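Margin note: ligand = cobalt (II) ion.
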Amino acid sequence: MSSSTVYEATASAPVNIAVIKYWGKRDTKLILPINSSLSVTLDQDHLRSTTTSRADPSFEHDQLWLNGKEDEIKAGGRLATCISEMKRLRKELVEDKDPNAPKLSSYKVHIASYNNFPTAAGLASSASGFAALVASLAHLYQLTVSPSVLSLIARQGSGSACRSLFGGFVAWQMGSDPAGTDSLAVEVAPREHWPDMHALICVVSDDKKGTSSTSGMQRTVETSALLQHRIKHVVPERMQLISKAILEKDFDTFARITMADSNQFHAVALDTEPPIFYMNDVSRAIIALIVEFNRLSIANGQGHKAAYTYDAGPNAVIYALEKDIKQIVQLIVSYFPQRPSEFKDVLGLFGTASSDINTL
Ligand code: ADP
Ligand code: DP6
Ligand code: CO
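Resulting structure:
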């Protein structure tokens, strides 16, 4: 090919919202977790990162722009690790095998990424962001590798990112190898397995969170006794039970475990020294509403109809089945009327995994 060939690729990745939360690392450099976790990846057409990578011999440095603003790629940092791991795969899997393949691994890359939702606000932007970064480089470098292999690299950008390489219901197996070769994402069930499952995102605040996930979980590992109980005696059984509930499409069990795990994650945040509060009064009011809604449906013999979960921020994600979504949206909108986005402390915006929800 001529020297004017443009080597460029674009990929998108959606966010995933954990139902069994990852919180704590046993190795902070390799990003190895202290517990396995499980999430649902939202559909592509909602919250997502879109990343374009270009390799060119004229580039002097690897550079990345996030939402139009340059983000420094620190030597030895997470972005640098992901980029160099992808270059290593390019060299090993393509260039070393085919002497005619262009030596893209020796070129610097320029990367531009956009999130179509608030960044660093507890809506898993690091998950979609690093998954899209790795996917776009895989495309650029023409790597034919499985999503699990890519998940090993995305994990080193942000732990939760490894799960966004798959759609549907995904587990991140914590693994046991100190080198991290078995700490990767695997599919529990594809999206089509349970198409009735939907997620309603209630953006309570799009502010950047006060304590990043990275520093918050590190403080919890260092100070919380409750976290030790959680990882030994709670998460392993929940992983089994929720995987089974997903395979059997048992929403009642799925909902009970999801809410219990969100509650315990926020309890370990509170058990941290000094304590971390990710939820606010609006978050707690949404919990109260969902608890009451479920109480009535259980009394009617219908079991749980909605499951709330909160990541490291005040924003609610409500999992529910298609048949119940309309009623839940109406309930929430009636208590928290939508307001212009400058009202940061009230519900501002809805997104969802269901494409028809925006028209309700
Ligand atoms: P969140 O709850 O949004 O995941 P985190 O504190 O875990 O918040 O991570 C936010 C960080 O993730 C950002 O400050 C940025 O460094 C990184 N990030 C977010 N989006 C992207 C993206 N599209 N590409 C690369 N990195 C991203
Ligand atoms: C509460 O993956 O953002 O969303 O690995 O340090 O980048 P780093 O943290 P991150 O933590 C996510 C925490 C969580 C739970 C989850 O997604 O499992
Ligand atoms: Co994150």
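The mean pLDDT is 91.
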